[in-house]
From TrEMBL:
PANTHER family named among the record's database cross-references: GLUTAMYL-TRNA(GLN) AMIDOTRANSFERASE SUBUNIT A, MITOCHONDRIAL, TRANSAMIDASE
rRNA-binding listed as a keyword: no
UniProt enzyme class: hydrolase
Protein family (similarity comment): Belongs to the amidase family.
GO terms assigned for molecular function: amidase activity
Catalytic activity: a monocarboxylic acid amide + H2O = a monocarboxylate + NH4(+)
Recorded superkingdom: Bacteria
Organism whose genome encodes this protein: Mycolicibacterium komossense
Keywords: Hydrolase
Coiled-coil boundaries: none
Pfam family of the protein (one): Amidase
Name recorded for this polypeptide: amidase
Length: 465
């Protein structure tokens, strides 16, 4: 396997190769560090690269491998989004308003290290993780490896760019309103927003009023399943044989709904290629033996404006209020926080009490189908700097029209994943989104694995790779 193929092999394959000695942990880490040094000055996927500690961790991992130790990610180099704590490093949230370096790993990082992962660095985010594009006054713009004039998405944009360009085996992201699924879509990756509570958020529990979750951006479905097996809360119901086992089992015949409907009151771009991908996927799934119907979610009229957006704005306000230097924030971020301050504790409590009603109405479709497929986005990624001179509300209205399909499922809490689906007329990745029943990542992973086997994507490489 040559160096480029090795860089794109993915976490599960890397773990197998390390166990049998086809590659050493120091060599694999050095491969990524060399690629980061060569390619990341253009992409700016990483906010900080932890070369010395990564090399030390790789050496230790190799000693453990040589001693016969077997851990799921032993020696596998990964990246961590810069809203997640890594001991000894600052968690900047894409801003110079942050506090000092933290002394303790976040729980998800602790679990990844416990599984043997080597941390390469922390990936770039937009300020306070607000936007589906990764640009900030403090750290500049992150570029899409498929077209460096475009954003990779956000807020896990650095994580998406890093994995897409072969600068990490997998990357940790977080998703409060689509922030894993959007960069996965625009970077040609697999990404899954797990069930709320599946992957620990501590010490940032209940982020964005319960809408945010941690999850992976990966080359393959198996890579994501491996991540979940390592990090999932063992007290929650999961599949027999783990999530990797679920990927390895073809699903039973499923009833799958196709939906291109946008939630009410949202304005959206109407890119025909994005909608066509859904129906192309339906044709493939029929050939695979599944029953496919066209059916839409029964979206409550006020679900987004009355339920999702208040939690989003208030979550931004709560995060800003906790910063030691909020005066250093960009004016647009301060504007978003001011809007969030208008939602009182009592109002947010009432909104959250209504979540079960919203979730039941959205979830009623699963009385008749097993999975719903929507477009991954309404259109492709924006150009770098497209919103630079705009205010908070103007920016939000424009970017939301590109990605209307994600945020509602953060409010309901159920799992949703995106699968790459070819390239658009500009040579940029397309995807489809698969939405599952609550707690049923296993069915999503099994179906995504079947799609991957029939419609593979991992051999596609962006121009910057």
């Amino acid at each position: 396997m040559d160096s480029i193929e090795l860089a794109f092999a993915g976490a599960a394959e890397h773990a197998r190769m390390l166990r049998v000695g086809e590659v050493t942990a120091p060599a694999l880490t050095d491969l990524y560090l060399e690629r980061i040094a060569r390619l990341d000055p253009e992409l700016r996927a990483y906010r900080v690269v932890l070369a010395d500690s990564a090399r030390a961790a790789a050496e230790e991992a190799q000693h453990r491998l040589d001693d016969g130790e077997r851990l799921p990610l032993l020696g596998v180099p990964i990246a961590i989004k810069d809203d997640v704590d890594v001991a000894g490093q600052t968690t900047t949230y894409g801003s110079s308003a942050h506090g000092p370096a933290v002394s303790k790993d976040a729980e998800v990082v602790r679990l990844l290290r416990e599984a043997g992962a080597v941390i390469l660095g922390k990936t770039a985010v937009p300020e306070m993780m607000i936007w589906p594009f990764t640009e900030s006054v403090s750290f500049g713009a992150t570029h899409n490896p498929w077209d460096v004039s475009r954003t990779p998405g956000g807020s896990s944009g650095g994580s998406g760019a890093a994995v897409a360009a072969g600068l990490a085996s997998l990357a940790l992201g977080s998703d409060g309103a689509g922030s894993i699924r959007i960069p996965a879509t625009w970077c040609g990756l697999f990404g899954i927003k797990p069930q709320r509570g599946r992957v620990p958020l501590a010490p940032h529990d209940d982020a964005w009023c319960g809408m945010s979750v941690n999850g992976p951006l990966t080359h393959t479905v198996e890579d994501a399943a491996l991540f979940l097996d390592v990090t999932a809360d063992k007290s929650m119901p999961g599949p027999d044989g783990g999530f990797v086992g679920a990927v390895s089992r073809p699903p039973n015949r499923l009833r799958i709904a196709l939906s291109t409907k946008v939630p009410p009151l949202l304005t959206a771009y109407r890119d025909a290629e994005q909608r066509a991908a859904v129906h192309q996927a339906g044709a493939v799934l029929r050939e695979l033996g599944h029953e496919v119907v066209v059916r839409d979610f029964d979206y409550p009229v006020k679900a987004v404006y009355g339920h999702v957006l208040p939690r989003y704005f208030r979550g931004i306000y709560d995060d800003v209020r906790a910063l030691p230097h909020p005066e250093r924030l960009d004016s647009r971020t301060r504007g978003m926080a001011r809007i969030g301050s208008m939602f009182s504790d009592k109002r947010i409590a009432r909104i959250r009490e209504a979540e079960s009603e919203i979730a039941a109405r959205v979830g009623a479709i699963f009385g008749d189908v097993d999975v719903v497929i929507t477009p991954g986005a309404a259109t492709g990624p924006s150009r770098i700097g497209a919103y630079r001179k705009r205010g908070a509300v103007s920016t939000l209205s424009l970017v939301a029209a590109r990605v209307p399909y994600q945020a509602l499922f953060n409010a309901t809490g159920q799992p949703a994943a995106v699968v790459p689906w070819g390239l658009d007329r500009n040579g940029l990745p397309l995807s489809i989104q698969l939405v599952g029943r609550p707690y049923d990542e296993a069915t999503l992973l099994s179906l995504c694995g079947e799609i991957e086997a029939d419609h593979p994507w991992a051999d596609r490489r962006p121009s910057v790779s």
